[in-house]
Amino acid sequence: MKFYEFGKENEKTLVLLHGFATTWEQSFRPLIDVAQNEFHIIAMAMDGFNPDEPEKDAVFVVEEARMLADYLVEHTGGKADIIYGASMGGMVLTDLLLDDRITVTTAIADGYTVMQYPAWLPQGLKRRLAKMLAGMMFWLINKHKPLIARAAGVRSLDELDQMMYTGMTKQTMVNSEYGLMDYRYKHEAFQRADSHIWYGEKEKGVSKTVGKLKSMGIAVKDKSFPGLGHGSLLLQPERLLDEIRRAYLQADEEGC
Q1: In what side-by-side order are the strands of the sheet with 79-86?
Q2: CA 69 from centroid of its chain's CA atoms
Q3: Which pTM does this prediction carry?
Q4: What are phi and psi of 197, to 5 degrees?
Q5: Nearest Cα to 197, choosing from 92, 102, 78, 107?
Q6: CA proximity to 82, closest of 98, 110, 106
Q7: pLDDT (tens digit, 9 = 90+) per residue, 140-154?
Q8: 104-123 pLDDT, tens per residue?
């Protein structure tokens, strides 16, 4: 795993966590370009999704979160002003928040992943299912991008190509799918920071998850962006930066 840092001279720290089937640079280079004069930015490049380390396959989000926590403890004393997790990055974020070594002021999960498999699935079935789903995803990415674009609610194939990394190995996909089989969402982690869940208007599953969290008494602020699909806010860096600033200032005003 690698970490890329920008604006080290700045006081406030913004940690960026990308999602599945994309890279830190595809997701965050436009945001970094407009934010590096304001924030000390730490962008994590997850194993299996980094062209600079093509020999590495993915590990799952729990291990990613541990490695990120180790890095933050060493380089920032375990403190982060803002952590922004896009899609699967939101899963890394929740695991990180539960690490007692880490203190976060503002936590943002944008397009928070909501899929969870039944706990009763036998291990043998999980392995077979992971291989089957990974093969299907590999096929879709290489042969049927329009189906992915439609499912994600993005507006065009050009938009999808800006967001999607096609250099993943099939083993990375298998590892990612297999990790999901046993993963239980840690929604309680949102209680450990001033937490926000953002989603495009077309992401109906995320809005349902927000409703579930609120019914459970978990304090989380939510915001829907009209006309946008999964990850589309990343393509509007100035707007994204403004939203991040606003969320952080809100936490500051509330004394979080």
Answers
A1: 2-6, 40-45, 13-17, 79-86, 103-110, 194-200, 221-225
A2: 15
A3: 0.88
A4: -120, 120
A5: 107
A6: 106
A7: 776 666 666 666 565
A8: 999 999 998 767 777 788 88
